[in-house]
TrEMBL record:
<dbReference type="InterPro" id="IPR043143">
    <property type="entry name" value="Mal/L-sulf/L-lact_DH-like_NADP"/>
</dbReference>
<dbReference type="GO" id="GO:0016491">
    <property type="term" value="F:oxidoreductase activity"/>
</dbReference>
<protein>
    <submittedName>
        <fullName>Uncharacterized oxidoreductase YjmC isoform X2</fullName>
    </submittedName>
</protein>
<dbReference type="Pfam" id="PF02615">
    <property type="entry name" value="Ldh_2"/>
</dbReference>
<dbReference type="InterPro" id="IPR003767">
    <property type="entry name" value="Malate/L-lactate_DH-like"/>
</dbReference>
<dbReference type="InterPro" id="IPR043144">
    <property type="entry name" value="Mal/L-sulf/L-lact_DH-like_ah"/>
</dbReference>
<dbReference type="InterPro" id="IPR036111">
    <property type="entry name" value="Mal/L-sulfo/L-lacto_DH-like_sf"/>
</dbReference>
<keyword id="KW-0560">Oxidoreductase</keyword>
<comment type="similarity">
    <text>Belongs to the LDH2/MDH2 oxidoreductase family.</text>
</comment>
């Protein structure tokens, strides 16, 4: 019996639970450490998830590149590194030796792991698949803060019963082009998919479909939903409000979330996709700097007094997109407000400081987020839309490079 097996057996009485153990940062080097030191790190950092009788050791951090999975069947010499690292390495054109490649987890394995985790918390298969597909897609596109990293948040909400994994959204009111939906506190991806599919359906007959939902949960990468519309040849727009993290210009406490906006436009075989938070940066980027012990750039965050800070330890609120007032941060503040109006206020959901605070430990309180989903059939307008979109893309791509 290996040391690893003995370690697992000590945990055998855990049932469908996530055990919280002290969290500390692990550097990438953990992946190449000796077996014994890995075991020590695991004991200090790991969570055990019991999925249908199989114990999984999830050894992961919020820095996505440091995510690795170790399953019961995995021998100690074969630490499985998340597929996120595959993508990152590919992006950086890093060459990997054969032994490193063998240690990588495939997209399918990552998806399966997440589905099993959701099912262990009573989520029906079809809902678990939708949620896992969204998280995998976020990692695949390089938005690591909204991929596997979010799994812990969602599982803890499910375990605290502040999210109902089996809930199915229902339409409260509709016209040929609009619908108001109650998300019934289900999983964000399930609700988001339902609403975007409904918007697409309406745009097929009315030319435009606009859906607002209340009683929703964190719906992950906002760009996922316009991407659904683009597959149908439609323009897609989606926004969500989120827990307060951003201090409005001239304020020293958070009153708006990172409130992302995503707009997707098809262009034949090409497309345009904007998917961005309306804060200067996502919170995860500050966490990363904190772990690395490095400063953050001016304009990302402010301290408890309301002054801009470059010390991640002092960061209390995020600054809006643009940063300080002198750098037009009030435009980011304005954009975040527009998101809250078109989502929380228009849907009759929570907004601003009415939204709960949320972290990886989950929350006992329901989120009741508001979201909006729009699909537009471009054929309702200029027949040269596609040609002109392709032309716009190439003009932008071919603009003279700035080498400074
Ligand atoms: N559900 C939620 O509550 C929530 C909240 C906030 C953010 N998010 C998601 O987090 C993810 C990350 O958001 P973010 O704002 O940190 O994204 P980001 O800053 O990485 O990118 C924002 C946009 O800018 C583009 N971009 C990035 N670098 C670029 C460059 N150098 N040149 C040109 N374009 C560039 C990206 O393609 C993207 O469209 C998104 O998927 C977003 O939807 C979700």
């Amino acid at each position: 019996m290996t040391l690893f097996d003995r370690f697992l057996q000590k945990q055998f009485d855990f049932k469908f639970a996530v055990k919280k153990v002290k969290k500390i940062s692990i550097k990438m080097s953990v992946l190449v450490k000796t077996t014994t030191s890995i075991i020590k790190e695991i004991k200090n950092n790991a969570k055990i998830v019991n999925i249908c009788g199989i114990k999984y050791l999830c050894n992961y951090k919020h820095i996505s590149s440091n995510y690795c999975l170790i399953s019961k069947e995995t021998s100690l010499s074969k630490i499985l590194i998340s597929f996120q690292n595959v993508i990152q390495n590919q992006r950086r054109n890093m060459s990997m030796c054969e032994s490193q490649k063998q240690e990588l987890v495939s997209v399918n394995e990552s998806r399966r792991f997440m589905i099993d985790c959701f099912k262990a918390f009573g989520v029906p298969q079809i809902h678990a698949e939708q949620q896992a597909d969204l998280l995998v897609a976020a990692d695949y596109r390089g938005h690591f803060s909204h991929g596997l990293n979010r799994l812990e948040y969602y599982l803890n909400d499910l375990s605290k019963k502040s999210t109902d994994g089996a809930a199915v959204p229902k339409i409260l009111k509709e016209t040929p082009a609009t619908a108001w939906v109650d998300g019934c506190n289900g999983l964000g991806a399930v609700i988001g998919n339902f609403c975007m599919d409904l918007a697409i359906k309406k745009s097929k007959t009315a030319g435009v479909g606009w859906v607002c939902v209340k009683n929703s949960n964190h719906y992950g990468m906002a760009g996922w939903y316009p991407m659904k519309a683009m597959k149908e040849g439609f323009v897609g727009i989606s926004m969500t409000n989120t827990s307060p993290l951003m201090a409005p210009t001239r304020a020293k406490e958070a009153a708006l979330g990172t409130n992302p906006i995503a707009v997707g436009v098809p262009a034949g075989d090409d497309h345009f996709l904007l998917d961005m938070a309306t804060t200067a940066v996502a919170l995860g980027k500050i966490e990363i700097q904190r772990r690395k012990g490095e400063d953050i750039p001016e304009g990302w965050a402010q301290n408890v007094e309301g002054a801009s800070t470059t010390d991640p330890e002092q960061a209390c609120c995020l600054m809006p997109l643009g940063g300080a007032e002198g750098n037009s941060g009030y435009k980011g503040y304005g954009l975040a407000s527009v998101v809250d109006i078109l989502t929380g206020v228009m849907a009759g959901a929570n907004y601003s400081t009415k939204i709960r605070k949320w972290n990886a430990l989950g929350c006992n309180e329901q989120a009741d987020l508001g979201q909006m989903f729009v699909a537009i059939n471009p054929n309702c307008f200029d027949p040269d839309f596609e040609t002109n979109m392709c032309d716009l893309n190439s003009r932008l791509r071919n603009s003279k490079p700035n080498l400074f």
